[in-house]
């Protein structure tokens, strides 16, 4: 069941804001994926930007079920989602954890007292608790886990191989983009979220909730997508100045209350286990998980998407953002416009801005093909494939080079391109001091390397503070060892201070 919440002076009274539709196809209707997408669009489902499908009972993507004990799954690097902000305007920083987890360990953490779903009366009550506590107790989210939970012999609606025109990227260019034309898994817990965004290149997406707690989705009809962009650009000015497509960083959280205040129509719907959600081109969406669950997702395309893809905004400030060359799609499906498009003279309108005529962006070099070729030529560097999902803080500041295990254990970097004026760009780097020091004078003969003595440095600094204390009598050393090398255990001395009334 879908819930529509529509607002706006021009929409009030007209009741023309599209609602999220729910489809219950028979197995015969369900068999052909592309045809059923076309059928739903013929009914106007795409106008809401999001649709729910309750698949037929005959469709079983995993016949063995979802006993966690029988699912051999390792989460390479879960992310900790730290949310900052207030009054319905937030920025979400995704901190990549250093240690991998098994699915069972993740489930135990999700069901622990700290992260378990709070008691609630209904979905609306849980939604209120989510927005009220969004900045407290940062959850973990196992996002962008490469793999599938579907059976290998599943031929109908197999998310890992949907066989749409997006496959031409692989056929014509030989490029595999993780999470875009391959499947990704997402394991969530209470309060883990996905921020406001459209899909990479404004593609379609499909999300199947295999098991577990529901997801709440928010969706803005594509015709109102520019309103959300305008609100975000005016609110998070610094981010917009740094990148005009910063919403693709997937860090911006805006509450329904703020959307209502700014007359931005939106819909809300809850996805339960066994249900499918489809997002449509240029359909902004966001949401959160109610508790421990597991979902599978990927992108796909249709001929209707091509015009969206040609005019999609591109993030140029991050090297890991997905960019797909539209050349093969224009050449195959819009041959009459191909020559003008190559010249940058393919004038027309964005599908959601019918009155605004402009030229579509000319073809761009397929950066991933270059990366693919360069990685084969220089095997010294390990280059990640294109990847879709949450924007991550890089552990080392360089995703292309693997750090030694000891350095990896002691380094972490958290980066955030913040939003509003009171949220500055945060860059936190914790690094272990060098274990050795060398002689700074080149004229003296080389001496053997000495171990850096953390204890002696700490003792000198503490003694300065100790002697500066305003006390005439010497203090008493409670423990004879003073400060020890293990900095996790500290030994202290005491002084008695006499303060005047004015102090």
Automatic annotation (TrEMBL):
It comes from the Eukaryota. Residues 394-413 are annotated as: Disordered. It is an enzyme of class 1 (oxidoreductase). SMART domains: JmjC (SM00558), JmjN (SM00545). Pfam families: JmjC, JmjN. Keywords: Chromatin regulator, Dioxygenase, Iron, Metal-binding, Nucleus, Oxidoreductase, Transcription, Transcription regulation, Zinc. One of its GO terms (biological process) is circadian behavior. Its cofactor is Fe(2+). Residues 20-62 form the JmjN domain. Residues 151-317 form the JmjC domain. Gene3D superfamilies: Cupin. GO terms for molecular function: histone H3K36me2/H3K36me3 demethylase activity; histone H3K56me2/H3K56me3 demethylase activity; histone H3K9me2/H3K9me3 demethylase activity; metal ion binding. Coiled coil: none annotated. It catalyses: N(6),N(6),N(6)-trimethyl-L-lysyl(9)-[histone H3] + 2 2-oxoglutarate + 2 O2 = N(6)-methyl-L-lysyl(9)-[histone H3] + 2 formaldehyde + 2 succinate + 2 CO2. PANTHER family: LYSINE-SPECIFIC DEMETHYLASE, LYSINE-SPECIFIC DEMETHYLASE 4A-RELATED. Belongs to the JHDM3 histone demethylase family. Probable histone demethylase that specifically demethylates 'Lys-9' and 'Lys-36' residues of histone H3, thereby playing a central role in histone code. Demethylation of Lys residue generates formaldehyde and succinate. This is [histone H3]-trimethyl-L-lysine(9) demethylase. It comes from Drosophila mojavensis.
